[in-house]
Write the structure tokens for this entry.
Amino acid sequence: MTFGVLEVDLVPALTLIGVVTLVLSWVAVEVGARVGERLGRWATLVGGVVLVLIGLRILLAHLLG
């Protein structure tokens, strides 16, 4: 279903979506900064490995059907 089909007023809906996205993004940046301070280089390495694994999973899913 879309907002048009549901006859939702767009301005309040989009404002709410924007505010929630802003708040959650800000919280994620703050948490990431604090975790990064404590775990340092190890967190960067683990994050890189996770991203590579996600990329490989997507690639294999597309190649193998």
In short: The chain has one domain: 3-64. Residues 3-64 form one domain.
